[in-house]
Fold each of these.
Amino acid sequence: MGIWVLGGHQTDFARNWARDGLEFSDLTAEVVAGTMSSAGVEPEDVEVIHVGNAFGQLFTGQGQLGGMPATVEERLWGVPSSRHEAACASGGIAVLAAMADLEAGRYDCALVVGIELEKTVPGDVAAQHLGAAAWTGHEGQDATFMWPYMFGELADEYDRRYGLDDKHLHAIAELNVRNARANPNAQTRGWTFTAASFTADDEANPLVERRVRRQDCSQMTDGGAGVVLVSDRWLQAHPEKRRVARISGWGHRTVGLPLRRKIERSAGDAYVLPHVRQAVLDAFGRAGIGGVDELDGIETHDCFSMSEYMAIDHFGVTGPGESWKAVENGELEIGGRIPVNPGGGLIGGGHPVGATGVRMLLDASRQVTGQAGDYQVEGARRFGTLNIGGSTTTTVSLVVEEGTDGR
């Protein structure tokens, strides 16, 4: 069965909703209304809702977010809805749950919403909240900032196995920020940087944890994204819907929480995180493609520049440990062999964690239908995505293709 993306909406990731005196209900209202408008559906068309949110209770005290869409749009009252949590992969899991509902034949039209508010507390408190996605009390006890510390450990493991020059991590960050300037919803689109901002300059780009520097990190972000997914049966009943994308493949792998155990278990493997590689291969296999060169671009999870560095070789853009080659050769640029994060990704675009997996699908869908605006990859017909939660405890990968009149 085909799963089709009718349309979707993203909020402005530069907006500070708490500073504007707004809350989850306001954020959800914009995402729900904007998503249905883009998809050309009414609330009465929606048969099931899936909400991705990672840390709502910690940042705002608000739980039960599966009930928020019907709270802000009473025409959704009575529609089945669930909230999904898988740290930064919460949005990806919400997408997979909606796909499963459609594939099972229970429903034919699903609304998927990813929402997160992170600017409700000071930065150090926010970092503590996000640390709940690690194995609490068992790892990162020496860290001031959990996730820079953990991805610094991943960088150290790459360095131990293959060698790693930090200039390639800084170059990844610079490319994502540069791409974000063309994205009207990107968090950093108006930020000012200097040439030293993406170097080892301790003043312009200070260390945060281990070898991870400020610009290697995505930011605390408020925001949301949504898509409407439909089945073959729904699409056949609505032949007027022509500018649609199709999810042709998916991969989903989950492993244990601790990063150290992930690294130890991969000793002797070609890949540092073989379960991530397998999720990507699962998506390729279900899409019927042979490898990364059959993609026209990638939306990947650059919560840190190191996570993108990892994604490059795990997608197969390079051999294991050789991601630096794609960075140096310009292969990741728009116009390069395999553009990565043309809208800025997480470092440039923003990372409201529960929304990220949904936003990736939305951007991939826009790319393959020629609707990505100023960051459109020319001729894009097929995109891959990679959404991870924690230290890749949860991994979701998708392949998204242009729809055809023949369906």
Amino acid sequence: MATVHERFPVAPEALWQALPHGVDAVKGQAPYYDAAAGYVTFSTKIGWLSYGQTVTVKVERTTEGSGLAIQTSLKFGFVDWGEGKRIARNFIAAVGVAVGHTPAA
């Protein structure tokens, strides 16, 4: 399980509109968007090198604008060997491109 937070100097509404770019970037499947609660949840595929992950991304209002709280968890298994953080970082990078902001590395 991994939890990653990232802040963006944009309005939460703009960040919300960019979430599909993040889902596409990590090849998320069956995304469920809950605008009222401000989150999206989706899964990644099971493959030769991955058991797949369940990912939940919440858009939060911050003093600087908005932020993402990304939580990943394995569908099966105990150790993800950093896969959850890689998924979160790729998601953040894609959303950053969509809103015109490059997050710090």
Amino acid sequence: MTVTAHIDSTRPVATLINVFTVAPERQEELIDLLTRATEETMKHQPGFVCANFHASLDGERVLNYAQWETEEQYRAMLLNPEARVHMDEAAKIATDVQPRLFHVRSTHSRG
């Protein structure tokens, strides 16, 4: 099975890249929490487009690549008490959390 991500530089979305630092023995716990939070809460928030979770091979990082229709909708989600509970739980598992918003400027593919 081939699974590919489609990132479109022509679509004006707010892209969240959130890097979590985590003890290797807690990496899977964090991914499970983020997955549950997305299914239960995040994907039902206005403006949510997608979320992807990546586990580093050394076990020390989890990367969340997510997109929201607008920065304003992303910021509104941050104020939602239900979403806040999940974010606070993730912060307790991680030793560091580095969320940043980006705009896709260029994409390249093999074919």
